[in-house]
Amino acid sequence: MALSGWLWAGSGVLALLTGLWTVTLRDRARQGKLWPRLALLVASLLLALIGLGWQAWESRSWPGNTAPEALALLAGGSLVVAAWLTLRAEVGGRATGRCIAFGPTLIGAGILLAAATWLALSATPSATSVLPPSRTWLPGLRNLLASIGLGGWIVAWTASMAWILQIWRRSRAATVQRPAEAPPGEGELPDTIEPEAALPAEDPGRRAALFSFPWLTAACLCGVAWNLIGHATIVRAAPAELWTLSAWLLGAAYLHVTSSWRPLRLPGWLAPVLAALVVAAGILAAVSATSLR
Amino acid sequence: MRGPSPGPPPTAYRLGTGPQVGADLLCPAMMLRTRSPNRPLDRALNILWYALSAPQVTAALCVLLALVLGLAAILPQVPGGLTDAEADRQLTALAARFPTAGFSLRALGAFDLLSAVWMRALLAMLALNLVLRIAAQAAFLYRLHRQEGTPLPPRRIVFRRATLPGPLMTITERVFAALDPHYETIQLTADNTSGELFAQRRPLAAWGPLVAYAGLLVLLAGLAINDTFSWRAREITLGPGDTLTLEQPAAPQITLERITGDDTAASSDVILAVSGRSRRVRPAVAQAAAWNNLWVSQQATGPALAVTAQESDGRAVVLQSLAEDGQVGPALRLLFGQTQSEQGFAIPMRNLTFRVVSYAALPERGIQQPVFLVEAYRGEETAPAASELIIDQGELSIENIRLNLRRDRYVMLEVAYLPGLIPVLLGGLLVLAGTVLSASGGMTRLWARFGADGKQVLAIVGATGPAAPQEEIEWLLHAVRSAVPSTQEGAHGT
To answer: What is the pTM of this model?
Structure first.
């Protein structure tokens, strides 16, 4: 697993540096064009994928059967979704602005890849031994779908967090700057809705969540099919599977909370918290990936 | 790529709770709401309906179920399909691992969370909530497809106020031109002083939530059917030619015809027979086989030694296995699991004990294939009285008893009856279809009202959509502004 570990280390460093570059230089003019950062993202993704491919070839099994592989897959999924959302938000005829999750997601992916590297390089030989050949491609498909389905929630969470932090920071700044006695003039808006004038009124993480949720659903269905074929059961009490189902349920809750069809009277911090719980469940699913063997 | 908007940033307020600025622009239809019923019973039923069908309840139930699954992932769980005695033994063993809280955890069903009573209660509440949400969604879809005129915007959506430079008729023309390529329905009415807009695209996507809720409900029904009627028989050990009838209701008779392939890729030919019908299925390593709702999975295969014994006059001798199950009879099959290399059996009537060791090969004896070493011991003696190497078959004689020894194989099967499988799979596919429909082509709706204000137009715009509908408003305002000649923009000022 040594070579895969070093490939993931390189991938993680690239993702981390690109993320820090984007987050540190918040001013768009200083960040420069989008393409260099996207190219670094693609390079990081390719390194992670080559590492996964090498590991799969070495163990003669589909990638995602061990914790390091599953973490690398999770990071790869988040990079794919971040790239897609960034292209959608910043390039094209109906570009709608900036993808505020780009930098934080890359940092998150870099941390996951660092964890994958550490686990890969410190793994005991038994954890990396050659597995019995799988008779079905369902585990591979399930792991691939779960990587995007769970990795996309890292984008959703970081976007949601960045948005709530921006609101909090601006409302705090507005409270500090406003003269205490100044009554709102004619045509001015009440203080309570001031942040909404400058920021989108809905959670920007919802787009990534909407993109990821069908992939996660498909991964759960693949898991059911795999359980049936391999073990003649619908749901196994394997931790990785239970954490994936848990992530699906939390994701469903997030999508209900952030729906724009009938906005609910719920506190703003709830959506980022739910997204964070989905990410936590996804990481726990990856860490316990061995239980699916 | 879009640049910054040329005009002042649009301000926003929520319908019914926001400021009065621009309120006169609100379409009367937007302010119209259905009145609450007067009768207390009707009001109570209304409140109950809205409370039970609320998306907040769906979200809360999902979170609770997720927490339960998380607990199940953390705490050790007993496998399903155990006999009561075995389940009780395993639960006691699990509780003993938690010296302080083990008893309480067991009482709460923490070691069997997936079939605990309160897990079922949560699922039942979710099912009720889903039924009501399906009804609400169906009512929405009925209104969507049947209602004529401009539909009402949902409560609490964010409306944005913006000033647009130019005469009203020009603005409305530009709005129409911007929306026309993207929206299937555009209702735009305007005169010299005011205008109203309603636009909608991809109404088919509004079926997404309904399909997903219905799928989840069907899936829950399948799980409930399984919970009530399914059964599972574990550790069914059979050798070639063996037949077993399971005790479960409507269970099949299982006959193992043969085992083929080596242990790493073995498959078994199994005949299932129920009510006069039979079917041959072929489970293999990590590959279950199915016949209707019966699923057979192959848990393990391994070498076995079949043993029979006769007296010199031909009478059968009773043998006893020294394994945990303590099998007794005139014929024994000694099974060797993946980690087992040694087994034993005895002839109690003669005070004889036999030790059987399985070797993958014995190169020092010139044997390059799997072989059994059988040693016989008398009473308390430590040295073997007789021994024999068995490659395929052989005999061992001791004290006028002849043992017939034959290399054999065994398979360990697990049989499950899953009557709710079809609803589970169908429900899962419906959920997937619903989520894809909602996510990939969500329905977007726009409401706007325009009022002429000198050389500019005051507009309020609201939108609903799958994700970030405010971006849709931004896009529309930008499209309208960027189409206005720059001389008019300059005249607009702040």
So the answer is: 0.84
